[in-house]
Amino acid sequence: MLPDLQRILNSGQVTNNGPFVQQFETALTKHLGIPTIVFSSGMAALIAMLRAVDVARGQVLCPSFTFAATPHAIVLAGGTPVFADVDPENLSLCLDPQLFRNRYRYVKAVLAVDPYGICWDPPDWPYTIPILIDSAPSFGSDVRDLPPVDRAAAQIFSFHATKPFSTMEGGALCSRDEDLIRRAKVIRNFGQEADGDCAVVGFNGKMLEVCAAVGLRQLEDWGFRSHSRSWSASRLREGLRGIEGLRVQETPPGQRPVWVYLPVFIEPEFGKSRDDVVAELAGRGIQARIYYRACHELSCYAGNNVRFPVTERLAAQVISLSVYDNMTGDEIGYIAQAFREIRNG
Ligand SMILES: *Cc1c(COP(=O)(O)O)cnc(C)c1O
Description:
The protein has eleven helices and 15 strands. Strands 1-9-8-6-5-2-4 form a seven-stranded mixed β-sheet, with helices on both faces. Strands 10-12-15-13 form a four-stranded antiparallel β-sheet. The protein has a two-stranded antiparallel ribbon with strand order 3-14. It has helices spanning 2-11, 19-32, 42-52, 69-76, 97-103, 178-188, 209-220, 222-239, 274-283, 309-317, 329-344; strands spanning 36-39, 59-63, 65-66, 80-84, 109-113, 131-134, 142-143, 154-158, 171-174, 246-248, 255-256, 261-266, 288-289, 293-294, 318-322. By secondary structure, the chain is of the alpha/beta class. The protein starts with a helix and ends with a helix. Helices cover 37% and strands 16% of the residues. Helix 8 packs parallel to helix 11. The structure holds pyridoxal-5'-phosphate (PLP).
């Protein structure tokens, strides 16, 4: 890594589509099997994707159970988020397919979310509007043996430091639609065309050379690391089984998630509130996050008077447990024991 950094600093080309960014885009395109371009963050990729399909002055359907960046990106791209509930049936934590079916005709685009490493499984039928996916946390996850990037018109990933595959800050956009990729590239660079004219309003969403160099290194052992992480998550899930009132998120059928966090849900039978459990875990040195929240309840989106029972229940019960590559049996045992003691204590 240090020689790469030295080379970048010596060359003077630290950004603006330099050789590392180009090499990283080529490597990701090959790895994912679909044209991919990179950004300064997942959020930048999200906004560019939404601007590239031109959602301005239109409504965009998205789940409420997601990170705030999802609806924020719609607003920053000039659209209006229309929230929907998540699927009550299989508890995939993804956009409810029935709501999607009923409502997609009335919106300009759909921005589905792949939460935690789980993939949204879209119903198969020909869509008349762009279906987009915020797959920020789910790089490397598979669904139905489909290349995970072939479910929608376009999809983005985040390479933020908190995500399993990281370039410190960074993101990517994938699409088979060459024109969409071309527009997103222009938007990423202030909207400037080759002749200097701006037909669309863009912003600065460019990835730094040093981030691309980190990404290239991460790709080298990603296969090993992503397996190790999936293995850690399945052992953590096994360790947490059989605790009354603690529901551990299952892997949806046909999927191979690379979990960023393993969500667990504190149900009434646990006998303690979710917030008390989080505080007691923190007291034992176990960092657990309250993530995601119900976005329709955030102050900036409240006032719509909408209710989403599944989202509200999940957001009130969820605890996101960190998953690492190479979690040891002792670490997993300690976490599982903590939940047992907190429940009985
Ligand atoms: C992490 C995340 C983002 C934001 O990605 P950044 O790279 O941090 O900008 C957006 N959406 C979801 C669902 C995320 O989990």
